[in-house]
Design a protein that fits this description.
This protein is an alpha/beta fold. Helices cover about 30% and strands about 25% of the residues. A hairpin with a 2-residue loop joins strand 11 and strand 12. Helix 1 packs parallel to helix 2, helix 4 packs parallel to helix 5 and helix 7 runs parallel beside helix 9. The longest helix is centred in the N-terminal third of the chain and has 13 residues.
Length: about 375
């Protein structure tokens, strides 16, 4: 396969809806009373796995193009599934739905594909068990399949060893059913889409620093949700505009939640010409993002910014290959336990394209390339 580098890319585009928000909208819409309507929903395999799971628990969910309509069954209205809940390749579905299932009055089994069966689930089994959940790894290896027997839960305070929105959200969702207060403190702030959406649905969720807190929830009603464009998808077009000569690209209505905007900060750190316009801060913060061809320079990326760009690191590595000097990405060991080891995959493929890149224990180092090849 031959790729030829183009010049003079200009235009305005939109990207599909944010995956993280789409997942959460299905879950909370299913637990609400009445109708929830979701527009610009991401029709990707992972989000469709979430829909499938809730349909199997008796929730009426209608899908029409990128619009989803849910007839919620209420906090205590889910029904015992007659078969295994297939979460596909979705770690988000697995971890978040486990928090809900832990508090139901029935038992169920969660399973996924071969890749998901290798991903660590002990990180949610431990805190949910502390809340009183009966949740076990069927093969006793800390991975799916999971057997979850619903129980009455108690609120806890959990100090998470890693900044992970999936761990936090799983515990907070369980906390909606738990007796008393449930809180999660992280070493640094992870994505806060769950906390924002809780409050949009009228659920009292408080955030202070890196701690999020919920109390036993009362019934709540369905709402209308417009999912902003996924910044992870937008990132590829932003980088394309930065590294392609004589280019200017605008991506409209992109979610720029402060817990997800690390890619914007890194572009600025590397000298990229990037501007935001039409900024809207009603719930999830959004903006139109414009980039222009730029002379980029390397930088060091690590620390608290990593959770805000964890899914954008692969495309940041590509951008770094076009930058002058050295770029160091560190504190990103979480990339090793995604659907693949993203550190090894990125280093392998960029090396194959002639890039000067090497893996480290928690990231990678990318050096300036004298000539960036265009053949793989």
């Amino acid at each position: 396969m031959i790729f030829k580098r183009k010049t003079n890319l200009t235009g305005t585009i939109t990207v599909p809806g944010d995956k993280s928000i789409s997942h959460r909208a299905i879950m909370l819409g299913s637990l609400a009373n009445g109708t929830t309507t979701i527009t610009n929903f991401l029709m990707g395999a992972d989000c469709l796995s979430t829909i499938d799971c809730f349909r199997k628990m008796g929730v009426d969910i209608d899908v029409n193009d990128d619009k989803v309509t849910i007839q919620g069954v209420g906090l205590h209205g889910l029904k015992e599934p007659s078969e295994t809940l297939d979460v596909g390749n979705s770690g988000t579905t697995t971890r978040l739905i486990s928090g809900i299932l832990a508090a139901q009055n029935f038992s169920c089994r969660l399973d996924g594909d071969d890749s998901l069966r290798k991903r660590p689930m002990k990180r949610i089994i431990t805190p949910l068990s502390q809340m009183g959940a009966d949740i076990k790894s069927e093969n006793d290896n800390g991975c799916v399949p999971l057997i979850i027997n619903g129980r009455k839960l108690k609120g806890i305070h959990y100090d998470s060893p890693v900044a992970s929105a999936q761990i936090k959200s799983s515990i907070l969702l369980a906390g909606l059913y738990a007796n008393g207060e449930t809180s999660v403190t992280e070493p640094s702030l992870s994505r806060n889409h769950s906390e924002i959406m809780f409050n949009q649905f009228g659920i009292d969720c408080k955030s202070e620093g890196t701690t999020a807190t919920v109390k036993t929830a009362s019934d709540f009603n369905g709402i209308d949700i417009n999912v902003p464009g996924d910044i992870s998808s937008a990132a590829y077009f932003l980088v394309l505009g930065l590294i392609t000569p004589n280019s200017e690209i605008t991506v409209k209505n992109v979610g720029i939640n402060p817990t997800r905007d690390g890619i914007i900060k890194v572009i600025e750190m590397m000298g990229g010409n990037i501007t935001l316009s039409n900024v809207n801060n009603n719930g999830e913060k959004t903006a139109d993002i414009t980039v222009k061809t730029s002379e980029l320079h390397g930088c060091t990326i690590g620390g608290d910014i990593i959770p805000t760009l964890i899914d954008e690191i692969p495309v940041i590595a590509v951008m770094a290959a076009y930058a002058k000097g050295k770029t160091i990405i560190k504190d990103a060991a979480e990339l090793k336990v995604k659907e693949s080891n993203r550190i090894d995959i990125m280093v392998s493929h960029l090396k194959a394209m002639g890039c000067d890149i090497k893996a480290t224990d928690d990231g990678m180092i990318i050096n300036e390339n004298v000539e960036t090849p265009n053949k793989l």
